[in-house]
Amino acid sequence: MKGKILIIEDDQDMCDMLSFGLSRRGYSVSTFTSGREGLQAVQTTQTDVVLTDIHLPDKNGLEICNSIATDYPSIPVIIMTAFGSMDTAISAIRAGAYDFVTKPVDMDMLTLSLDRAVRYRNLQETVQKLRDEVKHPQHFDDLIGNSPAMEELFSKLSRIADSEASLLITGESGSGKELTTRAVHINSRRKDKPLITINCAALPSQLLESEFFGYKKGAFTDAKDHRKGLFLEADGGTLFLDEVGEIPLDLQPKLLRALEERCVRPVGGVTEYPFDIRIIAATNRDLESAVDDGLFREDLYYRLNVIKIEMPPLRSRGADILMLAGKFIEHFAKRQDKAITGLSDATAEKLLEYSWPGNVRELRNAIEHAVALTHFDRLMPEDLPEKIRLFRKNYILLGSDDPMELISMEEMERRYIMHVLKTTGGNRTLTARILQMDRKTLYRKLQLYEAQ
After folding, report:
1. Full-prediction pTM beyond 0.85?
2. Are 335 and 211 found together in one domain?
3. Number of domains the chain is built from
4. Is residue 401 part of a domain?
5. d(Cα 284, Cα 10) in Å, to the nearest integer?
6. Among candidates 76, 103, 59, which has minimal Cα distance to 4?
């Protein structure tokens, strides 16, 4: 495949002709007959080049070009026009267009322009990756997001990935603790050694001890052979103790001793075996409260909590929700062999409004559900699980600590606009859509707020 081309053209016959011709030339093509739908698709799907008509029923092609140049500067836009005047060309370039072509379209000339645009797009991505590597030298490909909360997480992971200190990852269920563990391991000096995971909540105390430390033949009824145990299997690498807060109290002293002495004695054995591993533990429980309640040993807590990482809940990550949704749509649409290009505006609003108690895991399941049910090329609100579809957010007075505070309508509007802008990760185009406000009006209000 030479690249993914998104066409915005209100003439369906022209869409079909361009799609057929470019597909035969090796491009992956998606078409939209309105500017609004096309811009939404740019936001939620991977696109290499946008090819748009200059005259559309709902938007001007130059406005579309300007929107993409502002919010997605690495995506080149080629404008089609039936009027190839110098004034049109100048207007297109000023709006941020990469190139423009005249109708009737010469497919050979268009292909040449698209080839150049795709090469430009690839170059832009390479430059951005190099910049990101300077900013974040490690690779955290499985962790998706550019919200302030995720930028802070990436920054901390970059600093601690190569450390040998024990790491405690806390956060709500489904927030990405296991993915973070994998990212830390891959970016550590132990990356060529095993990453072994055990769910501490899945086994009773006796079996958990055998899993940790191994056992000798005949140590108990079913011990028909020797077993090394996970501490020794992970030697040289990383041992991930998932749900560490669920380790039974009677096993905690044995775990503490192993961590302090860096050696284990298999169940039923007398010989101790040294190990060299990094410990990463994760929990969705408040371990400090568990310590206060006598349910978790304080000395073990401090042994595990040398470095602490708190995973941000999905509801605090704003536009990361749509970024993740786009990735999940791409994954499940491919698996189910469906041509789904993204989300409708109304669906995007539903996803941003929902509170996501199950975090990224719940979002992934919701998108899989929607992809399976939809009959459209974009996910609609009716495709979502009922609890998300019917969710109604309880809004409070934004930015106020005093529920009785009296403020003007203008101040209430300002607070709400800034709240939506923060939720969308600063994406002004999406903010305007959610607010059902013209982009120029939004820009004017934001300039006014900045001047105050």
Report:
1. no
2. no
3. 4
4. no
5. 50
6. 76
